[in-house]
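Good morning C.,

I know you're traveling, so I'll keep this short. The sequence:
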Amino acid sequence: MLLEIHGDEIKGSQTTAISCLPSFTAKRQAMTSEGAEAVFAIAPGQIFLVKPGDSADHKFMLSKGAASSIGFRRVGESPAACSQPAVDSPLHNFDVFWTTFDEHYPFFTMHGVNWREVRDTYRPRITSDMTADELFGILKAMIEPLHDAHTYITGAVEKRRFRGRRETTEQVADETHRRIVEIIESNYAREKLKTWCNGRLGYGVLSETIGYLRITAFGGYASSGGFDNQLKALNEALDQVFAEAHTLNGLVIDLRINYGGSDVLGVAVASRLAAHDYSAFAKKARNDAADPSSFTDPQETRVRVSTRPHFHGKVVLLTGSNTVSAGETFTMALMGRTPQVTRVGENTQGVFSDELARQLPNGFRFALPNEIFLTEDGKAFDGSGIPPHVQVPVFSKEDLTKGCDVALDEAIEILRKK
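The tokens, ready to paste straight into the viewer:
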């Protein structure tokens, strides 16, 4: 990415070895933030901080709500591609798409995909008069074998939308989701769950004084105001959830349907469960376009003990293939907790990185991961997902028909035994 700073304005461009496309304009804000040299806004609520690096020619930029900073270094001149007008041709769009993945994607080997062979297979099929639908079909075919839920491509019309997914996993349909909620509230909870954060947090008490906390996303908690309002809404909800936590014999956290959001909000929840500070995770990003084995130094995020209402007792975490992205980094953030959080259900989806959002000259938008999240002992779970301690089917057709939840049954039994 190229940043051009002119007084109180920053213009950002997305760059590859062959392209340079305008991305955003940010304006300096009068507000200040501790540890920041300047504050800029791309849009209301979309704030990033400029922080000092190791010299005047090195800075870090941190978006509010992100778990890591991006490092920038001053260059003597703009990349050569930035002095050329953008070319909107099928071939150039193909080349920008292929090059972006080639320079950033870290998981080709893991997925068994030879990216250069992909280029050699599909590039000869590009013609100057091909339609947008035809080009979309080729770009989709290129990334579909990655089976990566953090890859997507979208055009201007509804039918031009594709997002990857790990093989043999499916997204839960709305009707199935409603049935799951009905089973839990009718057959397990003492009463209908109380909800907060636009319905994304739900809480109730099960039999034997076991708390049940359902989190369906780590975002969308407030309708406006940016990350600060999201965090405020979450903290106010958790204050109510844990107000009487001392009366609980255990807590079940249900992430089996959680499509992600902010890693920082996940860590904020983990802090309510922590009796001591510990490492949540560290993340590193590809930083050499020519060397897929080269990464930035890992940046650590820590779980810190909260002084607000909390729960330090026994916890069981329910996960499955619809535990995605920030749902997975939250799962990772609980791995260092004491006493240990017992995971029940199925493997998470296996996508942890922030999505690197990009665009093509023709207006197609796409995204890919470029980071790897690591546990304190250096383990990553990309592709396979985080496995449970106790493998139990999640939302099987048989359970939905019978009105039972075998994973929740197992969680209750574990807490009862403990």
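Safe travels,
E.
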